[in-house]
């Protein structure tokens, strides 16, 4: 494939600079304004400027591949064109959320929330994530990233999803209807579902009871998945071991919530994936995809133009 | 290989039960008292009863492999016999310490120590371990376990050891003499060294200065590796970002230490590897090795009888 690659528009200087660097790092040549007519690929460098696309693609008739900078391609849906290969950042943004889940699991199981608040030498405590039984509710991108990060830990992972179709890397898969069975005996339950009528308050008093007193709840999805009143009661009375929540209902969680006062409940301010974390991740994806393009290999994050995602 | 395996002695019921379960889980048959004469392998189930070994091995003449339950085999040195294959728990106990390091890295970089102590919604903050630059001082068992756990995170790992011989999984290796160069630009420095005259206070004011204000210090080795006065000053003035210490000098760290009062310093009570964590880990090793034995594969933790370790 040709190494001449356009990085456009230049309306967001920080992103533009990062992507041009990534193209060069991967061995590509960045097309200047004069070179746009010969560019074979186009890296789009401003998520908020889809309106500039028609003019720029018209000036770049040799382009065969367009890389978009985000996972959801809604602003580009009207521009998708089957004659081109389109890629987006699918999957990229799941990694920091999966990392947040790992941080939450390790903090809870190893009692780091206790040590972080201590002002004197504590008693020995903590359990291992190594070899633990982890149940993940949800079988999407966050779960796939999490399974990848968990791979060296020797955990027994159970995945709960709409259907019981197997998930690579999981020891067991259950349908959502069998969620109570799936959480029984778990050391931690991770919520990584989409929020629908079916999954709202999936973590209710009965599920917390089924999880049991050794189990941590880790919510990386939406506050609406958890019945917060039931959770507060379960945490107060030791029905479960503890909870780490990156999402609450509502957000921000008001100071009046009883959850703030519970030692076994840690709330992080929806930072699974922060604005700052995004740019390095999508820059890595651009570098990886430019390398694959130049080598003639399959690109990551391919968009199905017919389906529009 | 024969599936008849003796688990002896039965003087520690909890360990004996765990190991017999592991043998069965791996597909082996547990030899009862009557079956000892035909057992082909012996899993030793009491670290404090090496004195019983001569009598039991005499009653089990068909044994070809002996699995010992701990990493150091000192109590068995007099019984080692070159006609048998010996394995011990080498490497098993490094895993929980490496897990502690992962928990410390994630807590520090993702600001979980701040969130754990918060009683209201915080500002967005935190950085990724994904893709971070990590410098590990030490090239032994903990480092090997840590490199294994870090494998999916895409980190740029630098290892510092006595010599600059390469370490599998590390991007760069430096000799201890070049430690200042090795920590420059790191997002975190992990101490996993043995404590010797050469390594005492390796983390001093000058090294902290070289680490810089974005860098976390994580000490999983010995308190004597760190000059605590220099560390306190560096944490107060923002010379480094923060510290997570599982070891201090002295231990327990007295309440009068200024480190207790610093938000960017978390101290855990030497729990890299707790007493409770040991049994599940060695049980996993027994299960793994019985599976390998039955499949005719190489066993983990082989003891070199001639060398005695």
Key words describing this protein structure:
homodimer, 309 residues, alpha/beta, Rossmann fold, 9 helices
Structural commentary:
The structure is a homodimer of 309-residue chains. The first copy, chain A, is an alpha/beta fold and 309 residues long. Chain A folds into two domains: 4-92 and 276-295, NAD(P)-binding Rossmann-like Domain (Rossmann fold), CATH 3.40.50; 94-267, Rossmann fold (3-Layer(aba) Sandwich). Chain A is built from nine helices and twelve strands. In chain A, the strands form two sheets. A seven-stranded parallel sheet of chain A has the order 8-7-6-9-10-11-12. A five-stranded parallel sheet of chain A has the order 2-1-3-4-5, covered by helices on one side. In chain A, α1 (13-25) packs parallel to α9 (275-295) and α3 (94-109) packs across α5. Chain A is elongated and about 70 Å long. The model of chain A has no long low-confidence stretch (mean pLDDT 94). At the A-B interface, α3, α4 and α9 of A face α3, α4 and α9 of B.
Short description:
The first copy, chain A, has 309 residues and is an alpha/beta fold. Chain A contains nine helices and twelve strands.
């Amino acid at each position: 494939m040709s190494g001449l690659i356009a990085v456009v528009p230049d309306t967001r200087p920080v992103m533009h600079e990062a992507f041009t660097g990534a193209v060069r790092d991967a061995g590509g040549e960045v097309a200047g304004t004069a070179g746009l007519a010969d560019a074979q690929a186009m890296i789009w460098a401003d998520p908020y400027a889809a309106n500039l696309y028609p003019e720029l693609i018209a000036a770049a008739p040799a382009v065969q591949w367009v890389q978009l900078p985000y996972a959801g391609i809604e602003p580009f849906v009207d521009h998708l064109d089957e004659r081109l290969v389109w890629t987006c950042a699918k999957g990229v943004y799941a990694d920091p959320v999966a990392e947040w889940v790992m941080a939450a699991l390790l903090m809870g199981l190893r009692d780091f929330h206790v040590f972080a608040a201590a002002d004197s030498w504590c008693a020995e405590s903590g359990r291992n994530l190594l070899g633990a039984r982890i149940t993940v509710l949800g079988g999407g991108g966050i779960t796939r990233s999490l399974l990848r990060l968990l791979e060296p830990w020797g955990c027994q992972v159970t995945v709960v999803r709409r259907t019981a179709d197997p998930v690579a890397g999981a020891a067991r898969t259950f349908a959502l209807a069998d969620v109570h069975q799936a959480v029984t005996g778990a050391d931690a339950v991770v919520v990584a579902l989409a929020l629908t009528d079916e999954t709202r308050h999936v973590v209710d008093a009965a599920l917390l009871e089924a999880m049991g007193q050794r189990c941590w709840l880790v919510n990386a999805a939406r506050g609406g998945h958890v019945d917060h009143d039931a959770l507060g009661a379960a945490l107060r009375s030791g029905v479960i071991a503890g909870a780490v929540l990156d999402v609450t209902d509502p957000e921000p969680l008001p100071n009046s919530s009883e959850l703030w006062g519970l030692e076994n409940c840690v709330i992080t301010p929806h930072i699974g994936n922060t604005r700052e974390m995004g740019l390095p991740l999508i820059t890595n994806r651009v570098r990886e995809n430019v390398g694959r393009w130049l080598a003639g290999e399959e690109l990551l994050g391919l968009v199905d133009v017919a389906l529009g995602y």
